[in-house]
Design goal:
Blueprint (H helix, E strand, L loop, with lengths): L1 E7 L4 H10 L3 E12 L2 E9 L1 H13 L2 H4 L1 E6 L6 H9 L10 H11 L4 H19 L3 H10 L3 H13 L2 H31 L22 H19 L5 H6 L4 H13 L3 H29 L20
Antiparallel strand pairs: 1-3, 1-4, 2-3
Helix pairs in contact: 5-8, 6-7, 6-9, 6-12, 8-9, 8-13, 9-12, 10-13, 12-13
Length: about 325
């Protein structure tokens, strides 16, 4: 179940209540007359089955309440109520299979922003990957995979492509196009510095290592990327976020970027080129599979209407 809160002008309250009464999957309808101060109006609360939430949100947005009032949605961990059980029983479909498109757009839109936090995580992940490669430590490579934040923008690109939200695609592409080069440049500088001062022996990189799988691109790389992209999008659309950890540690996006940096520092240009190829294959495979999952899970109706994202800030920071 999801908890819905709607701030509505007084003259729109009855129409909003009709929306919630007429649609299956709603329970515990409450109205607080005159409770809202800014924006002024009434406050409506209800619990909504996840499989019914998308249609409810679309109908409320059709009343203009996303402009004249406010609509918020949050997950309920526990709902002990016969009314809630009836709401879930009457709602069409299964909650685990339902996609709340507005929630998905807002979530991926937020995670796709290029900001200091995103850049910091990506840089730290690349640095961890470079250390793991130089020290031949698969465990450190796995740590870099988990820390890397790149799945957010990749998921946003898939959502933008499916919904034709080019603003979302541009925002996510900007985050990746700026984030990876900056993180790799910082990693290159740190790698060279640690080599010069003798903290890490980068010269041993030319020997065979247990982490050489990172740069060896092949069909398996595409297969793993496709499976990871599909699993990641299923996780996001079904609100089963625990599965995302498995996605993070199954693809070699950040490790490939770190491997390319270390290879370039020591002059192994062939390995650096293969690492860039590995990175490209993983990025493309994740986006393609995530988009296919969204197309399969999309409702049969012709279009899905979602509220536009806020404009990208003039300052990247």
């Amino acid at each position: 179940m999801l908890h819905l809160r709607v701030v509505t002008p007084a003259d729109t309250t009855e129409r909003a209540l009709d929306v919630l009464r007429d649609r299956p999957g709603t329970a515990h309808l409450i109205v607080h007359r005159g409770a809202a101060v800014s924006p002024a109006g009434d406050l409506i609360e209800a619990d909504v089955a996840r499989e019914a939430a998308d249609e409810v949100l679309e109908a409320l947005c059709g009343l203009g309440l996303d402009h004249s009032g406010a609509i918020t949605l949050e997950a309920l961990d526990t709902a002990l109520s016969d009314a809630a059980d009836r709401a879930e029983a009457t709602a069409p479909g299964e909650g685990a299979d339902a996609v709340v498109w507005q929630e998905l757009v807002n979530r991926t839109g937020e995670e796709s922003r290029f900001n200091a936090t995103f850049l910091a995580f990506l840089t730290i992940a690349c640095l961890l990957a470079s250390v793991g490669i130089v020290t031949d430590s698969p465990v450190t490579i796995v740590g870099a995979m988990v820390v890397g934040p790149e799945f957010g923008p990749l998921a946003a690109i898939a959502v933008g492509l499916v919904l034709r939200r080019w603003d979302l695609v541009r925002r996510a592409a900007l985050a990746l196009a700026l984030g990876f080069p900056i993180a790799m440049l910082v990693t290159a500088g740190v790698t060279m510095l640690t080599w010069v001062i003798g903290l890490l022996d980068v010269s041993g990189f030319r020997e065979s290592h247990d982490v050489d799988f990172v740069y060896r691109v092949g069909w398996y790389s595409l297969i793993v990327a496709l499976l990871a992209g599909a699993a990641g999008m299923l996780s996001m659309t079904s609100a089963k976020s625990a599965a995302l950890v498995g996605v993070f540690i199954s693809v070699t996006t950040v490790p490939a970027a770190g491997y390319a940096v270390v290879a370039a520092v020591v002059g192994e240009w062939s390995k650096a080129a293969q690492s860039f190829g590995q990175l490209a294959v993983n990025l493309a495979g994740i986006v393609a599979a995530a988009a296919v999952v969204l197309l399969v899970r999309r409702r049969k109706r012709a279009s899905v209407t979602v509220r536009p994202l806020p404009e990208v800030e003039k300052s990247l920071w």
